[in-house]
Design a protein that fits this description.
Elements (H helix, E strand, L loop, with lengths): L4 H7 L17 E4 L2 E4 L15 E2 L7 E2 L1 H23 L5 E12 L7 H16 L6 E7 L8 E9 L1
Parallel strand pairs: 3-4, 5-6
Antiparallel strand pairs: 1-2, 2-7, 5-7
Helix pairs in contact: 2-3
Protein name: Endoribonuclease L-PSP/chorismate mutase-like domain-containing protein
Pfam family, one: YjgF_endoribonc
InterPro entries: Endoribo_LPSP/chorism_mut-like (IPR013813), RutC-like_sf (IPR035959)
């Protein structure tokens, strides 16, 4: 039975963006064997970050709430899917999402990185169903490129 991941994206009202241009000397995604490895994807929308700053529960100026950061992680995942498609042309070739690594720019007292990266994991589950079940790391860091609150990368198996 052929998967219908492209159709599922449309049913969810999601449209893949253009692949984000690299910020330095790297490719957005590469293929090795039957795997696609994406570079870390920021939550760029039309080439710009909708929010910047560290994730915190404090509500202080210059911080991003965990709930908003989870939404941004979802956008990172959508950008990563676009990078995967740029390499394999048809998302229906995906066998499974193997690994997700999420980086969360965190205030020193913030410990909710797994809930933030759930934004990406939940989207992947909605789009890919059982093939979207993956291993994952959610890492807190002090700063990310462009002062992004979150960054997500994928390893995807295809056939």
């Amino acid at each position: 039975m052929s998967e219908k991941f492209e159709e599922r994206l449309a049913q969810l009202g999601l449209e893949l963006p253009e692949v984000a241009k690299p910020l330095a000397a790297y490719a957005p995604a590469v293929v090795s064997g039957t795997y696609v490895y994406t570079a870390g994807q920021l939550p760029l929308v039309s080439g710009a970050l909708p929010e910047t700053g560290v994730v915190s529960d404090s509500g202080a100026a210059g911080t991003v709430s965990p709930e908003r950061a989870a939404e941004l992680a979802e956008r990172c995942a959508l950008n990563a899917i676009a990078a995967v498609k740029s390499q394999i042309e048809d998302l229906n070739r995906i066998r499974r999402i193997v690994k997700v690594t999420g980086f969360v720019a965190s205030a020193p007292d913030f410990h909710g990185q797994p809930a933030v990266v759930d934004g990406a994991s939940t989207l992947l589950g909605r789009v890919f169903g059982a093939a979207g079940v993956h291993a994952r790391s959610a890492v807190g860091v002090s700063v990310l490129p462009l002062n992004s609150p979150v960054e997500v990368e994928l390893i995807v198996e295809f056939g």
